[in-house]
Design a protein that fits this description.
The complex is a heterodimer. Chain A has 2 domains: about 45 residues, no CATH class; about 210 residues, Orthogonal Bundle (MetI-like fold). Helices cover about 75% and strands about 0% of the residues of chain A. Chain A is an all-alpha fold. Classes of the chains: A mainly alpha, B mainly alpha. Chains A and B meet through helix 1, helix 3, helix 4, helix 5 and helix 6 of A and helix 1, helix 3, helix 4, helix 5 and helix 8 of B.
Amino acid sequence: MRSPLTWLPRGLALGLLAFLVFGPLANLVLWAFAEKWYFPHKLPLVYGFRFWSQVFKPSSEVFATLATSVSIALFCVVVCLALAVPAGFALARGRLPWRGAILLAFLLPQAFPSLAVYFNVARIFYTVGLNGTIPGVVLVHATHGLVFAVWIAAAAFAAIDPDLELAARNIGASRLRTFLTVTLPLAAPGIMASAIFVFLESLDEFTGTYFVGVPDVITLPLLMFNASIGGNYQIAAITALILLIPSVGFMLFIERFLKADVLAKVGG
Amino acid sequence: MRSSRLVPVLLVLPALAMVLALFVYPLGLSLVSAFAAKDGAATLGNFAKVFELYATDIVFTVVIVGVSTLLIGATASAIGGYLTLGENPRAVAVLKFLYRWPLFIPFIVAAQCMRTFLAKNGLMNNALDGLGLIDVANASGLLDWRGIIVTFVWQQTPFVALLVAGATAALDRAMIEAARNLGASRPRILVEIVLPQVTGTLVVGLILSFVTMLSVLSVPIIISGGAPTMMTVDMAFRINSYSDYGTANALGFISYAITGIAAWIYLRRSVASGGKL
């Protein structure tokens, strides 16, 4: 059965899949390094870093935008964890009425088409002076990312053996001390995973920022969008590559952060 | 003890309050303004305007998102199925490595990739030209509704496939082995034994995917600029050009209604499985 012929259909199918997965990415990379490329040439005529030096020169808006994007994402992580760690612990350990309904409530922002909600949030924020501000954008991103934070935190706490906490309590540790020295460190990898989810979700978010952030808060996705609409393919490709790095990195390493025992309890 | 019942509620409350204030309240506002005229009086005028101006776009949106959902379902099932039933470990490993790449790539980046890949002079046409299958000079690009579907399927399939593959990996192998010993072909085992047991997971994944695609603004703008376009683009246009919240919210209401049908199936599934997703 090990004849090379059996590999032919399999190889063709996998090759086609590889082309479909990597082709669009390859085309993006080509544009990032193409200094001159026009029809009917199949590949760029001149390669180079001219647009890279343009993007990465100190006065370029890409740096300021990247700083805005990263700080929004970090604030977002802080807000989400501050809310999700207590909530996740209560959902995993406490006896809560309507526990299933509460878990589902956090899914609402992902379970409804969010665009119409965003421009209504913008309308509300306009009246309280949050429109076009960093805190406004952080709040919008955090609401959307909260489901990952709460669900994964709850799963991480649920995966911990309660006997370990009981042992600490038996030798006289207070509730708070048990939580801080036993429970929280054990749940840390799961909470780390939820933090990364929230960070990425915020970094990549476009629609909410489009309505709530304008005109003062410009994030990387908005910058990329403007470059793309303006027909500036190189700048769009380079900013897109900056956004790609954390996404692909997380895809490759997700299993290190999200262990199977935690994953099995997500949403349960 | 009273306190031990109150503490968990207090711990959940701040997070819940955030969802209520920043999602449920604006959602309610959106529903109310869909049925309100500029002076606040109740009216169906917004919907009359929507059907007059955007009926084509609503159909266009439903078709694009619907077709994408079906394609994602089929591709994700095929990937999940091969990962479970594939007999060659090396081919399974290659597939496992390949399919996940777009998993966390944002829509806006996927759209920019596809805008160049699917263009008349993009890498896809050039590759087909290189193989002698088409002539680029006479070919056209796919930068219209087809491009939007390709982008959606490319970006969303890994997520659904990951869920399906997780569910199929947890299945009891005995039944699969029994069917195989009786001489059932692998496609038949996939359709008759594996998929029926993971339908719940597949449907949940597809509904989340459906809702996500229904809210995407960047993809239709970047891939295909012109009309007809998706409802999200119309909503953004009503807001940015006319500050016309009534019509935009009526469009929003229709997108909730479209999702409502999907959410109903979703809630029924999750209640049936005891709150587990």
